[in-house]
């Protein structure tokens, strides 16, 4: 079993079965008679966000690429493993590879490993996110050839140059889909006096978000929320151009991170990147015209990986199954 424990989504890949689980990294906890217990995880928990009564708390235990609440994260991992297994149990000697956010500390990594062990895994190994993303995107990570991957997740963007199964350069910036959602929400608040929740902001990004300005106003979308002045439920219409303008700042930070990586890459590897170009993975890579924006900044060919949302889980699964990638896995 391979698990991409993302700050926004958790994806589980199982040998011979493929992707068996793809759900939001959200957990809902219920307090009954002073005792807190897990109510639901994943899709059902996300539906509750922002709408819970006082005794239920729906939360994301991973934020900004780090684990905000270890105990709760552990509970969530255990529930996801059980959900992925269904009625089956872990086969004897079952191995699990978990891809952790690169900002995770040693203590957090140990907690994640313990959660998988407690759920029944016998051997738990970890893999770095950009390495898994590159393997999942089908990049030549085992060859003596430089390849650049940019994984744009919810909490972080990881930029890495890989060669010979090692990471020649990597950097992580705390900008990703979440930051994009926040800038959209604050734009709507400032420009339209409308308060919107994070789920609505994400919907706007998926619907009409873009990394570069459209010709004219572009697409339009109706957005509902609470009016700041009247306090009443209210709706407004916003345009793709407005959203693209709001996204200039987070997209600019991604562009800068890529430029910094190129500036810090050894010349021989740079030469390879000219030929290979840059591959974008992660859900953030699906933002409309982000590939164009990165290509404009770098002057290099840029492509969005097929299955961008699943590259990390597919790569972690391949690393587990194919001995040529064994060097990418580690135990502590
Ligand atoms: N079509 C789309 N357009 C723009 N953004 C998208 C699209 N589809 C998904 N996303 C965004 O991708 C992000 C989630 O990506 P992903 O699942 O790769 O992150 P993660 O692995 O959970 O996060 P991290 O890598 O930071 O731990 C979310 O912010 C989501 O809104």
Automatic annotation (TrEMBL):
GO terms for biological process: cell morphogenesis; regulation of cell shape. The keyword Nucleotide-binding applies. InterPro entries: ATPase_NBD, MreB, MreB_MamK-like. Forms membrane-associated dynamic filaments that are essential for cell shape determination. Acts by regulating cell wall synthesis and cell elongation, and thus cell shape. A feedback loop between cell geometry and MreB localization may maintain elongated cell shape by targeting cell wall growth to regions of negative cell wall curvature. NCBIfam families: mreB (TIGR00904), PRK13927.1 (NF010539). Belongs to the FtsA/MreB family. This is Cell shape-determining protein MreB.
């Amino acid at each position: 079993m391979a698990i991409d424990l993302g700050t926004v989504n958790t994806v589980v890949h199982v040998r011979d079965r493929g992707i068996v689980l793809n759900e939001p990294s959200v957990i809902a906890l219920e307090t009954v008679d002073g005792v807190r217990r897990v109510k639901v995880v994943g899709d059902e928990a996300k539906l509750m966000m922002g709408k819970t009564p006082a005794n239920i708390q729906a939360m994301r235990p991973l934020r900004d690429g780090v684990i905000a609440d270890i105990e709760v994260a552990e509970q969530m991992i255990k529930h996801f493993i059980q959900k992925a297994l269904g009625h089956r149990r872990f086969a004897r000697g079952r191995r699990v590879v978990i891809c952790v956010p690169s900002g995770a500390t040693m203590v957090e990594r140990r907690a994640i490993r313990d959660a998988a062990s407690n759920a029944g895994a016998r051997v738990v190994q970890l893999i770095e996110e950009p390495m898994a993303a590159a393997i999942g995107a089908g990049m030549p990570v085992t060859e003596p050839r430089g390849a650049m991957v940019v994984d744009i997740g919810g909490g972080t963007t990881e930029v890495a140059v890989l060669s010979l199964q090692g990471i020649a350069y990597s950097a992580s910036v705390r900008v990703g889909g979440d930051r994009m959602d926040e800038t959209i929400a604050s734009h709507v608040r400032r420009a339209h006096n409308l308060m919107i929740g994070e789920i609505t902001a994400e919907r706007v990004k998926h619907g009409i978000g873009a990394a570069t300005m459209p010709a004219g106003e572009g697409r339009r979308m109706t957005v509902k929320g609470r009016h700041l002045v009247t306090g009443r439920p209210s709706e407004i219409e916003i345009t793709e151009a407005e959203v693209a303008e709001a996204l200039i700042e987070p997209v600019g930070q991604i562009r800068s991170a890529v430029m910094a990586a190129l500036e810090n890459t050894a010349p021989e590897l740079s030469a390879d990147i000219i030929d290979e170009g840059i591959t974008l993975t992660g859900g953030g890579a699906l933002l409309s015209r982000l590939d164009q924006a990165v290509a404009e900044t770098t002057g290099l060919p840029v492509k969005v990986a097929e299955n961008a949302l699943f590259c990390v889980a597919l790569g972690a699964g391949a690393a587990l199954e194919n001995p040529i990638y064994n060097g990418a896995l580690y135990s502590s």
